[in-house]
Amino acid sequence: MNKKTNFTIIGAGHGGKAMAAHLAQMGFDTTLYNRTPEHIAAIKELGGLDLFIQETGQKHFSKLTCVTSSIEEALSKADMIMVVVPSSAHGDIAKVCAPYLSDGQIVVLHPGRTCGAIEFAKVLHDENCTADVTISEAETFIYASRSDGPAEARIFRIKDAVPLAALPATRTRLVLDTIHQVYPQYIDGGNVLQTGLNNMGAIFHPALTILNTGRIESTHGDYQFYIEGVTPSVARVLEALDRERVTVASSLGIRARTAMEWLKLSYDATGEDLDEAIHNQPGYYGIKAPPTMNHRYIFEDVPMSLVPIASLGQRYGVSVRAMDSIVRLSSIIHKTDYWRRGRTIDKLGIDNLSVGELIAYVTDGIKTTI
Global pTM? Predict the structure, then answer.
């Protein structure tokens, strides 16, 4: 009989709380880690979280096995480590985990955004972590969730299918076999380049925010982000970005889904062009715009999603002028250099790899240069 998996959730934000509460409710030993003790004080005092699942109307108290701000304690009994933090923190999490990881543990980034698993592996290598750990990433987060209070989590929806891939891809089946104990929704995502290049947030979030800068700042986001923010001209920019993303994937031998295909697959929304398809997606109605330009759609999605895609394009001969323009405008607005701060291929340690060598690395773990 298979042993029940012990889970550790890293991050006690909206997603981390929802995942921890749901896993505990399903009967799995679950540890919740957050580096700031104050952020989890209420959860620790209660010994768990109140979980409300909107679809069923059920409300439960989910008792956690451990709530801690000690990473050593959090990892000590973990079989599967679920990293549920903004992708801009993946490198920092890898660094603090490195001394305490042990052979056989599985790390899953929820989600990896673009090249998250590659960054995590690079940091572990740089930190001289010798543990035989399997690193993997999900293409998107499995829950639509919110936190209703310091010790409360609400799950609106659980996605039906979420692609997942390990680094290397030869270990994906191991991860799926383990995670299927609790989440049958995860499916084989090919490899971590494929999950990362199917990152639709990279296309929709930064450009739509940047192209609506005046409206966001004058209304504080009081308008429908997709329905009113996407006009024919804005949609043409999104289409140009999407063509670049798909072409970058193609240069690596990967068939990425187009934005139109994604809208059809995810929401059964169709149209003559992207403008029409977005407006035919009922789920976008009612979603408000960011209240400020200081939003994760820029400070996370630009350096951790758009930059690595564009960086791969530049390395392998694809024109990414539209992406570069969004990165540069974002950098001006935020008074920073997102090319310098982002996941460029030199930072990821893959800049010297040919296409064949890069594919060998993500498929079989064979890397000629680090």
Answer: 0.94
Give residue limits of the domains in the chain: 7-196, 198-336
180 given a catalytic annotation: no
Active site residue 301: yes
Which superfamily, per CATH, for 198-336?
N-(1-d-carboxylethyl)-l-norvaline Dehydrogenase; domain 2 (1.10.1040.10)
Choose the catalytic residue: 50, 205, 242, 275.
205
122: its two tokens: 């690079």
Please write the tens of the pLDDT for every residue from 145-196.
988 899 999 998 888 889 999 999 999 999 999 999 999 999 999 999 999 9
Residue pair 367/353 in contact (Cβ under 8 Å)? The answer is yes
Axis-axis angle for helices 116-126, 90-97 (nearest 10): 40
Rounding to the nearest 10 degrees, give the CA dihedral for residues 143, 146, 149, 152.
-20
Distance CA 115, CA 129 (A): 19
- Distance between CA atoms of 32 and 238, rounded to whole angstroms? 38
Rg (CA), the chain: 20
Q: Which superfamily does 7-196 belong to?
A: NAD(P)-binding Rossmann-like Domain (3.40.50.720)
